[in-house]
């Protein structure tokens, strides 16, 4: 069970800058079958020295630069990681510059010169410094670079970047030449001193220079090499801008480029066979092989996706079980009034929803329509609150599964009122042919109710609230109108000098917006008795009415038709009464005789219709209680007793016929 090293291990070759450096493996144990996963972490040793890109660096610094100015230096590279990587920088002693060590986002270090004492070209034209890079090993490893500084004459203005830090995102499979970012700097000088040239700063790593290219004239930073998210996720690029003056001014900025992962690595499947070959009698559940899958991509790009096929096991679900919609009457036809919202957690066709409108009232289908695809409910025509206030319907939401599942949502549409109906006067009747006059006695005191204007408004609520005002009157001081009741009252006591006839015009207004109104005209007469009013009205009527003769003839015709109808009814009643009395007398006479011997006179009752011959004559003997006694008959002259008896009875008197038939069920056989 010992795990042995099979070859020399180089951490920098296996993992590069990644830390920690992990190697994974699996151990398979048989009988019983068990699988264990293991990892080996390759620890770093300090076996690499820091390295500068070059052994010398040259800077040109104007003597006019103020103290505090910063100048980036080239960074050293150390392939070791952790404490064995580059940890700090040291600067040789000098009176003008100090060293400031900064840390990048990835943890690496870089150094900047900081001017502490202003330079003087006349005093010292150049300076020589030594920069030392040290790692954290024990003992530490180091590297050195010679820095030559030329002190130049003053330059009035140095370039200035519009921002100190730029940020950009680039996909790792971005082709070469793709624009990453564009930096911009300006210089206020004229001529060559105002022209700016862009370049990488001295401490930009060589690896970055291989992956990115910078246009010195435009400042466009583009992809040059092949980016790999699995190798480096973030690049920190330092750029500078110089003018073309005799003593060039320099400005610095930083660009942070984040590499975005793409799914560019296929999963690696490792199969470890347990049995080879597999016996034909292997029991179900026997492990045949073990599979291990890895993917170098990150996040979702590094998962193994198992597709689960969808089953239509979820019915559509609406955000609400019911909707209440309020629509103003007199609406514009075709407007949408509601969107029924529903969701289905299934996938594909199982989640495709369709909407259908069901209505209990057939008229709903002519008034409303629903979009089958998105559930938008439309109003097809204009509604009237006075016609119908509420509509109820059901919307069915159904998915496209097989079989489909559905959910019902109830929708109630309420038609809200709009003030579109003026008050309607019921009394006094408008446009009536006969003018109705209300009478008030002379001397009536104040507060006496003469009459009342009755009106209704087909609208609802506040729109139907009617107010009454006196618009015009023969004597405005004599009468008043109740604001909300419509009652016409005397405002003061009537005097003898008041006019006998008064006409009032009442204005009726509702309280809608806008206000709608109508008017009613009331005639009032001041008189002791109604007769006086009738006399006045008769006098006021037209002298010659061409319609009065037509009315007279119409009334006369109605009277004659009624009299004829009455006489006809009386005649029919008398005839019916006569028939009833005749039948009653016949009945009574049949009961008053103890024995009746039929002779020629009685024979005529049976044969007077002319339908029965004399040889069909019967002798009938009846007792005083014949209705309860058996009927005795003599043998007729013919050989057919039954036929003769039936013919005789059917052609006799109606009353006698029915009397005999009533006892027929008890008749004995004919006697000799």
Automatic annotation (TrEMBL):
Its main location: membrane. It is found in: Cell membrane. It is a single-pass type I membrane protein. Keywords: Calcium, Cell adhesion, Cell membrane, Glycoprotein, Membrane, Repeat, Signal, Transmembrane, Transmembrane helix. The keyword tRNA-binding does not apply. PROSITE patterns: CADHERIN_1 (PS00232), CADHERIN_2 (PS50268). Residues 53-161, 162-269, 319-425, 432-544 form the Cadherin domain. It comes from the Eukaryota. The chain crosses the membrane at residues 552-575. InterPro entries: Cadherin-like_dom (IPR002126), Cadherin-like_sf (IPR015919), Cadherin_C (IPR032455), Cadherin_CS (IPR020894), Cadherin_N (IPR013164), Protocadherin/Cadherin-CA (IPR050174). One of its GO terms (cellular component) is plasma membrane. GO terms for biological process: homophilic cell adhesion via plasma membrane adhesion molecules. It holds the Pfam family Cadherin_C_2. GO terms for molecular function: calcium ion binding. This is PCDGK protein. It comes from Indicator maculatus (spotted honeyguide). The lineage of its organism: Eukaryota, Metazoa, Chordata, Craniata, Vertebrata. The gene is Pcdhgc3.
